[in-house]
Specification:
- The protein is mainly alpha-helical and 281 residues long.
- Helix content is 67%, strand content 0%.
- The relative contact order is 0.15.
- The two termini are 29 Å apart.
- The protein contains 13 helices and no strands.
Length: 281
């Protein structure tokens, strides 16, 4: 049976994803301010609705983890089956968020295993879950796994099996930007750019190849090296990168999903309250 704690974890994850969607400008990613003017971009309301459609699947993942109590092969298989059902539901609601579902699903399950865990413990538990194969997964290779094999990129599976290093890097960037006096949106954008600057995004590799990936990484580094989005020079570099990537139709969606994972962990307190709410602060 599901619990209020499961509902609270799932809602925290959905809130993190919708907070990521609300940021602007995100280089090459959907912008809530002017999506209607950009050909080929999903409507922002559709993306928000499909984010909410992840909720039931995330609740089921939390419940499965709480019921299992350990990061076992059986839990990994069950999470995979739930995830495939959730992907179908999200597709009916407008699509998108596949990478975010993988990241948030593992982190929600890991948090449910130990409600009192901190960031390090949650990412370590997610790593242990991801280490197991999904024995019921379709035998055909996914596009991401094919690109990972072709270019030697870690991909989404590799990121999880390494304990989500880019999620942890994003959390460090959030903390540093806040300490330096950035606004919350600026801190979150700096965290996104930090991920973009080093992530071997398999979606970008598929669309652009290695040269394009390096172009995106260099553009993200340029914003950070200019002082980040809290500075005038950094904001100018950000807008230039955003215009460039939209013109090229290059979208670093892998980085966006990992930022959502970081925002989920950032808002997750060490305990779940007795009333079933996740405390945030």
């Amino acid at each position: 049976m599901r619990s209020r704690e499961d509902d609270a974890l799932a809602q925290a994850a959905v809130d993190a994803l919708t907070a990521q969607l609300a940021l602007a400008p995100k280089p090459g990613l959907p912008d809530p301010r002017d999506l209607a003017a950009r050909a080929g971009q999903r409507d922002h309301d559709s993306l928000r609705w499909s984010a909410k459609a992840l909720g039931p699947g995330l609740v089921a993942m939390a419940a499965a983890a709480r019921r299992t109590g350990e990061p076992t092969p059986q839990l990994r298989t069950e999470l995979g089956a739930i995830g495939r059902c959730a992907e179908h539901s999200v597709g009916l609601a407008g699509g998108g968020h596949r990478g975010a579902l993988w990241t948030l699903g593992l982190l929600v399950a890991a948090a449910a295993l130990d409600p009192g865990a901190g960031v390090r413990e949650v990412t370590a538990a997610a790593k242990r879950i991801a280490a197991h194969p999904d024995r019921r997964a379709p035998r055909r290779p996914s596009r991401g796994s094919s690109i990972s094999a072709k270019y030697g990129a870690a991909g989404a599976r590799g990121e999880a099996r390494a304990g989500f290093p880019h999620v942890r890097r994003a959390l460090d960037a959030l903390a540093a930007a806040r300490t330096a006096g950035a606004t919350e949106d600026q801190a979150r954008l700096d965290a996104l750019l930090t991920v973009m600057s080093t992530l071997q995004d398999t979606e970008l590799l598929y669309v652009t190849g290695p040269v394009g990936l390096r172009h995106v990484q260099a553009g993200a580094r340029a914003v950070l090296e200019a002082g980040g989005t809290a500075t005038e020079a950094g904001r100018a570099a950000l807008h230039s990168l955003d215009a460039d990537l939209h013109t090229r139709a290059w979208s670093p969606r892998g980085s966006a999903g990992l930022l959502a994972g970081a925002l989920f962990l950032d808002g997750l307190a060490v305990t779940v309250g007795a009333r079933g709410r996740v405390a945030v602060g």
